[in-house]
User: Fold this.
Amino acid sequence: MQLGITRPLTEAEQDELSSEAFDSYDAYCNRWPKSVREWGPSAVVEWSGEGVWLRDIRGRAFLDCLGGYGVFALGHRHPRVIEAVKAQLDRLPLHSQKLVNPYVAEAARRLAGIVPGNLRKSFWCNSGTEAVEGALKLARLYTKKKTFVSTTNSFHGKSFGSLSVTGRALFRDPVAPLLPARFVPFGDAAALEKAIDADTAAFIVEPIQGEGGVHLPPEGYLAKVREICTRRGILMIVDEIQTGLGRTGKMFGVDHEGVQPDILCLAKALSGGVVPCGALVSTDEIWSAFHPMPLFHTSTFGHNPLAATAAAATIEVLTTEKLPERAARMGERLMAGLRELWRSYPKVLAEVRGRGLLVGMEFVAEEAGIRTAEELFARDVLVAHTLNNPRVVRIEPPLIITEEQIDLFLSKLRGALEAIGK
Ligand SMILES: Cc1ncc(COP(=O)(O)O)c(C=O)c1O
Assistant:
């Protein structure tokens, strides 16, 4: 297969590339969620993206309301990010490991400018799970305690550390034993209070459980958690890998309650949808635990200039285009339309909920959710269920989505619900 094609493909090339892609995917790739051959009509080959649109190899355009699980907050190929990354790519894509890189420093400075309170120092990595790994290590180093408390049905990643605090037995049990962690119900501050013991280093929590099925906690929960963690002398790690950077209608999910975590984890949207990127951020005081030995936590591709450039440009776009505010406005429009559909199809939809542009539709049964996602796919709209809760289909479009595109989505959803209601 030829690499780096930018010209339009002939029909014969489209056929050939598709068939090679299916064969190689089947033979050499991890089978998720099923073998490509079983995917049926949704087995199509992706080819290009622009804004809210993703195109397949034959030019079919999908309205991307999945948004790469939160990666495409700025849409596909935002021009500002592409321009900055291209310049870096042409000059110095990866770093020497020895000299100081100006754009890595600039990305960290810009990040410190948008995170809550006195969070300042950051470690940059390549994924969400790595950000959580770093946070757990930092919490142990700082507190000199060993165990963690997390929430049932949470999702923090699948490497050993982050999996240890991911609240789903299906992913944990086959590879146990993991790090010591206790699980308490999400939204239940009293249960957290009870679960903390003398060896607890930190509590890790998402402001909204994304993969758990888009669950919002009761009002005041995060502030109460903050109070408990401070009083009991444990760290509050907030995982904003999905909720962060504008998704919920404010820059961070914790901003809805004016809470400052001790350690904040980010990834997904930080990439600008262009270069994989994650980060953990903490205060100078907590970061001092890394100082005795800065090599406690490193990674060859960590702090790489290509990703840092993408992140720095992303932060610029988020603030200059006021995308958090836009997400709040578009989210209200989306939610109003969804509530109307919920009233019209109560036998199919059990609930709709969310904040900003992190929205979930809970179906009465898993099958209804699967069929709705298929009907939407047939209508050129991408959505997917949440990882821990297949009854919930998430709607997570780029934050740049327009009112007309929200209305287009709602009309296609109405068609899909009508089709499966029959
Ligand atoms: C809240 C949260 N934390 C952590 C992760 C793991 O991130 P990654 O898949 O980049 O390792 C995810 C991924 O969905 C997530 O939603």
